[in-house]
Design brief:
The chain has about 220 residues and is of the alpha+beta class. The chain is built from 3 helices and 9 strands; from the N terminus they run E-E-E-E-E-H-H-E-H-E-E-E. The longest helix is centred in the first third of the chain and has 11 residues.
Length: about 220
């Protein structure tokens, strides 16, 4: 979440800069196509972003204070169906839609990051593939595991901007919605703890490099 007015608690400043942007993703409609966006040089203005993902505890406060309920409740906070998951209070909230995330951000006086901002916060100027460097280190993040973990569980999973837990654990929303006239989609970033196996048609699983888009 990036700040709109003031500097809310828990945010870090990401300084302005110029970097080589390149995004890769797979498009599985009418075939299996791998294509790249970029590379191109992009200037980014200074912005603020939450150091960690929104937690279940954060989202509970939002619901209590705002009275928010989604227009489409199907699967909303599915992991809370038997009550608030106290043991996972510091885990990132899941089972929320893009609209839910936008509503939370507006309530908090923030907004979702753009695609460019997310990648700049995750990789910095040197074009690294992972927040900590160019080589994947399984012990640095929650990837290919049985469930989510607290947002601060992996101190080495922090970017040059000191934004943490950006890869693995849970997919992260960015404020991008696209249309080709036939379909509407958005992109999610960072990968998650879960990794399905057995078919190339499954969504990419586990932590993903910071240049990776997943079409949703």
């Amino acid at each position: 979440m990036t700040d709109q007015v003031g500097v809310p608690h828990g945010m870090v400043e990401v300084p302005a800069g110029r970097f080589l942007y390149q995004a890769t993703h797979r498009w599985r409609e009418g075939g299996f196509i791998l294509f790249d966006e970029g590379p191109r040089e992009i200037d980014v203005a200074t912005f603020w972003i939450d150091r960690y993902e929104v937690t279940n505890a954060d989202f509970r406060i939002f619901l209590a204070e705002s009275g928010y309920r989604p227009k489409e409740p199907h699967n909303f906070l599915r992991h809370w169906q038997t009550g608030f998951p106290e043991a996972c209070a510091k885990h990132p909230v899941t089972w929320v839609s893009l609209e839910d995330a936008r509503e939370y951000a507006a309530w908090a006086g923030k907004r979702l990051p753009t695609d460019i901002e997310w990648q700049w916060a995750a990789q910095g100027r040197d074009g690294r593939r992972w927040p900590w460097g160019n080589e994947f280190v399984p012990s640095n993040c929650n990837s290919d595991s049985s469930g989510t973990t607290p947002v601060d569980a992996f101190p080495l999973n922090c970017s040059p901007a000191n934004v943490c837990d950006m890869v693995g654990n849970v997919w992260e929303w960015i404020d991008v919605v696209c249309s080709d006239g036939w379909h509407r989609w958005c992109f999610i970033r960072g990968g998650s703890y879960y990794q399905a196996r057995g078919s190339m048609w499954y969504a990419e699983g586990g932590a993903q490099p910071v240049q990776h888009h997943h079409k949703y």
